[in-house]
Design goal:
Blueprint (H helix, E strand, L loop, with lengths): L21 E10 L2 E11 L4 E5 L6 H9 L6 E6 L5 H7 E4 L11 H10 L5 H8 L2 H4 L15 H13 L5 E5 L7 H17 L3 E5 L3 H7 L2 E5 L6 E6 L8 H5 L2 H15 L25
Bound molecules: adenosine-5'-triphosphate (ATP).
Length: about 290
């Protein structure tokens, strides 16, 4: 599998996937006096990738926690692949946090295999499953290295591999590259995108980085400041480009980035065409206009 192939040219939201993925309807969650998110409506078609951006503290991680089944809303419904009860949501979701949380005493291989072992697969079998994936994840030759012997980008790849082999259909990625320097982060984004193109999952990515949202999401949702509400959403429909640099320089990329930034800063931007969910229904969010 090429790690970075031809980038851009994603199918638009509405590209024929009809199965329900994740749907939040009227979701509100408070922590004591703090109203974290209010009346959130979101839909992620199965097999698609939603990027969630918003100001710090607006409830992005709260939304992931609700999807994952680790938390319950005060109001509203969280449906993950047809399941609304907490345990069933937990069973469907794998979570990748910002920090890699690798076990320092375990090799990269043993760390990546941990999620399989947690599912009751023997250590030997788990490692045999994970080992061939190391090359595909750009980690060949580093199987026996301890986390401290790996670069930040490599550690994140091991963490992602661990998340990926957990066998869950939904991947919840909470600022997975937030701790990486700019160059490593760019490589990690290209790599993750290629990995998800090769083996699609239903993905929700929380990020502060608008470029990352454009590069990795099929759709982007912008939240308001706390309490987080959906302010706008955008389909990501970019032209084909041979390289990341070319893609970032296309008028489509620049325009969309400006629209998302404008929505984040709550300043006017050019009108945006309505986005449709993959099942053909309008995604239940307000659009940035103006
Ligand atoms: N378990 C909790 N107990 C109390 N308050 C919480 C809890 N989880 C979140 N909050 C509060 O809810 C609000 C939303 O938090 P959340 O972490 O979801 O925001 P975020 O958008 O992910 O933030 P950041 O971008 O800074 O990571 C914040 O004010 C936070 O302090």
């Amino acid at each position: 599998m090429p790690l970075v192939g031809c980038i851009g040219q994603r199918g638009v939201v509405g590209g024929g996937v009809t199965e329900a993925g994740i749907r939040l309807t009227g979701v509100t969650r408070s922590y004591g006096d703090v109203l974290a998110v209010e009346g959130v409506d979101l839909a992620v078609p199965r097999g698609r990738r939603l990027a969630v951006v918003g100001p710090s503290g607006c409830g992005k991680s709260t939304i992931l926690g609700l999807m994952s089944g680790l938390d319950e809303p005060d109001q509203g419904v969280v449906d993950v692949l047809g399941a609304t009860d907490q345990a069933a949501r937990l069973a469907r979701c794998a979570w990748m946090p910002q920090r890699d949380l690798l076990l320092p005493w375990r090799s990269a291989l043993a760390n990546a295999a941990v999620s399989l072992e947690n599912r009751g697969i023997s250590r030997r079998e788990a490692r045999a499953v994970v080992r061939p994936l190391f090359a595909r994840f750009g980690l060949a030759g580093f199987e026996e290295h301890r986390p401290r012997q790996l670069s930040g980008g490599m550690r994140q790849r091991v963490a992602f591999l661990r998340t990926f082999v957990a066998g869950k259909e939904v991947l919840l990625l909470d600022e997975p590259f937030g701790a990486l320097d700019a160059i490593t982060r760019a490589e990690a984004q290209d790599w993750l995108r290629a990995a998800l193109e090769a083996e699609p999952r239903t993905v929700v990515l929380v990020t502060h980085d608008v470029e990352e949202a454009l590069l990795l999401g099929h759709e982007i949702v912008v939240l308001t400041g706390r309490p987080g509400k959906v302010a706008a959403s955008y389909a990501v429909d970019l032209p084909a480009a041979a390289t990341r640099r070319e893609l970032l320089a296309t008028p489509e990329f620049i325009q969309l980035r400006d629209k998302v930034l404008a929505a984040l800063e709550q300043r006017p931007s050019a009108p945006v065409a309505a986005v449709k969910s993959a099942d053909g229904s309008p995604n239940p969010v307000r659009r940035a206009e103006g």
